[in-house]
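pinging the channel bc i need a second pair of eyes. not urgent but kinda urgent?? the chain im working w is below, pasted from the shared doc
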Amino acid sequence: MRCEPPRFDHQNLEHKPVILLLGDLARLHFSRVHTLLSKIGVYRGQPPILVHLCKKDGLMQKELADALNLTPPTITDTLQRMEKAGLLERRTDPEDGRISRVYITEKGRMVKKQVDEIIKEIDEETFKGLTEEEKKLFRQLVLKMIDNLVKSGNP
C-alpha cells in the first residue's frame, strides 16, 4: 500500500491556529515516517515493539500489549506480521507450557538499528535550521501542552 504525502496549503499560515499547525506537522511527520519505514519493510506500530523487546526481551504477549497500550487483536496481528517477516519469534515458556513469550531475532535487532537511523534522519529534517536552544524550547513547550491536556482530563 502506497501512502501519498498529505497536501499542504502554504497560504495564510500566519493566521492559522497553532493547534491546526500542530495537526499539519503531525500529518507531514507521519507521512515521512511511513515512507521511510516502508522502504525497510517496517510498518506502523512495529517500531515501538522492536524498541520494547530490545529493552526487555522475552515478554508475554499480554505484557507487551499492556506496556504499549495495545488491544489484544492489534498486538496479535502485529506480532504475526513481524514473526512472518522474521523480526521476532514466539516461544513457549520453559517453566510454564501455557505461556508464550516474544523474543526479538537478530534480524529484528538489525532492523531496529535501521529504524533508529531513520528516526534520527527525520529529526534532522524536521529541526533543520533550528538552533539547539530553539529545539530545547520547542520540546519544553510541547511537553507543557501535553501536561496541560493531561491535567484537563485526557488519558
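so DSSP finds six helices and three strands in the chain. and The chain has one domain: 16-151. — does that match what u expected or am i reading it wrong
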